[in-house]
């Protein structure tokens, strides 16, 4: 056998998508929400002296921190007068009360020590035994300190468990039901799990009295410290606006709050006079970068607007009908209609918002899966079915709540055909308890 090697040339044509830096930038800008886009552009201004970022904010009152390379067009509002006060933390609130109410003693030192172990919800995260080891104080002294700590505001602070938190609140409430404190102290689990017959026998009280205690407990605050340590309120800047005009829906791209880039022409003309070839080359690169970024910002806005227009077109009933029904809709449908990839649609709706006269909604919320109904050969969105289940439960007799099977039968009357298991799943997603836990024992 003879083996021979032959060298030759041949041509082969292939198609390949090259992910250029500019394309990556465009994809990045599309997936950013307005706040992220602003941060991205501001970072670019630090690298590119030919670029300035402008944001128009005259229609929206929301705090914006001025950064280098960013200017803001606004009306004559006194923005300094609108800066909110700093929120007081739970820790600072407690420290202030301790210094105002208790004299400088060893007991106060122990209270200050315990405050260090109060979490953001107001609960004590250290045991008395651990506190004894770390402070050298006696158990009695630390229990006294804890008692004084639990007398502070907010009511329930310093509790070591949910049960204790509720008991502290009941103890200070003159309107609490007579048996509420002792029931929580001795039969908390039974009350929560609706094993009320045990409580009924133990105290010889009527079921409607236990129902009153149960209703009262639900009004108490399980997280007394949650009102503190909150971040400043964030305001949503909608990307598109939908307005109804004589039965027609207009979809507009908002300009307010959306950053835009401006070319520093004066600086460019001045630096262009330089005879240094490196400076000229630098200006050329920065000008090209600016052009790409500006194009990307404009393309981002146009893509979001196109996607929003298609969404509004397919979900017109939501904007025109007071019941706000949503039709089943998937990403691939919008992608096919606009001749783009599904990932492009996904980036266009994540973190992007749509403003209407009746509220602001994330674009992603308009996408719902559907169930095909054999009886009508129609496809209903899961949102519509969940809403129907919620309406049925709301209208039921609370003393004889409907089982999941009964809800299936009532839905079937409305020509909605789903299984009992699906009803149970949707009910749990809606936060609706089972029929046994929905039963009430009113007087």
Automatic annotation (TrEMBL):
Coiled-coil region list: none
Domain RNA polymerase sigma factor 54 core-binding residue range list: 82-267
Name of the protein this chain belongs to: RNA polymerase sigma-54 factor RpoN
GO molecular function terms listed in the Swiss-Prot or TrEMBL record: DNA binding; DNA-binding transcription activator activity; nucleotidyltransferase activity; sigma factor activity
GO annotation, cellular component aspect: DNA-directed RNA polymerase complex
Organism: Vagococcus fluvialis bH819
GO biological process: DNA-templated transcription initiation
Ranges for domain RNA polymerase sigma factor 54 DNA-binding: 281-440
Pfam families attached to this UniProt entry: Sigma54_AID, Sigma54_CBD, Sigma54_DBD
């Amino acid at each position: 056998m003879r083996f021979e090697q032959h060298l030759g040339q041949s041509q082969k044509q292939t198609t390949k998508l090259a992910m250029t830096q500019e394309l990556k930038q465009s994809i990045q800008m599309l997936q950013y929400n307005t706040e992220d886009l602003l941060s991205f552009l501001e970072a670019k201004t630090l690298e590119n002296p030919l670029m300035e970022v402008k944001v128009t904010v005259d229609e929206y009152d929301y705090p914006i921190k001025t950064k280098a390379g960013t200017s803001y067009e606004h009306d004559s509002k006194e923005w300094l007068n609108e800066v909110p006060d700093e929120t007081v933390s739970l820790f600072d609130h407690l420290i202030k009360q301790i210094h105002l109410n208790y004299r400088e003693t060893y007991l106060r030192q122990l209270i200050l020590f315990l405050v260090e172990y109060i979490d953001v919800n107001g609960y004590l995260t250290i045991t008395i035994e651990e506190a004894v080891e770390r402070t050298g104080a006696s158990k009695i002294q630390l229990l006294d300190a804890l008692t004084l700590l639990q007398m502070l505001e907010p009511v329930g602070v310093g509790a070591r468990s949910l049960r204790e938190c509720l008991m502290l609140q009941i103890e200070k409430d003159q309107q609490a039901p007579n048996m509420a404190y002792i029931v929580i102290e001795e039969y908390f689990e039974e009350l929560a799990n609706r094993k009320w017959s045990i409580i009924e026998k133990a105290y010889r009280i009527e079921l409607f009295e236990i129902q009153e205690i149960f209703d009262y407990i639900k009004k108490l605050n399980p997280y007394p410290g949650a009102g503190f340590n909150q971040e400043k309120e964030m305001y949503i800047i909608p990307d598109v606006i939908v307005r109804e005009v004589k039965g027609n829906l207009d979809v507009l791209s908002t300009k307010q709050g959306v950053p835009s880039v401006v070319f520093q022409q004066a600086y460019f003309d001045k630096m262009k006079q330089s005879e240094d070839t490196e400076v000229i080359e630098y200006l050329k690169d920065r000008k090209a970068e600016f052009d790409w970024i500006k194009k990307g910002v404009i393309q981002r806005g146009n893509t979001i607007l196109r996607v929003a227009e298609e969404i509004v077109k397919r979900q017109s009933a939501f904007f025109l009908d007071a019941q706000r029904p949503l039709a089943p809709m998937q990403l691939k449908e919008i992608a096919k209609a606009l001749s783009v990839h599904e990932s492009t649609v996904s980036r266009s709706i994540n973190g992007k918002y749509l403003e209407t006269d009746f509220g602001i909604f994330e674009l992603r919320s308009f996408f719902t899966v559907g169930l095909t109904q054999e009886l009508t050969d129609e496809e209903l969105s899961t949102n519509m079915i969940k809403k129907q289940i919620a309406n049925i439960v709301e209208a039921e007799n609370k003393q004889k709540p409907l089982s999941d099977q009964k809800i299936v039968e009532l839905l079937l009357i409305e020509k909605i055909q789903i299984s009992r298991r699906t009803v149970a799943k949707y009910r749990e997603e809606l936060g609706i308890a089972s029929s046994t836990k929905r039963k009430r024992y009113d007087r």
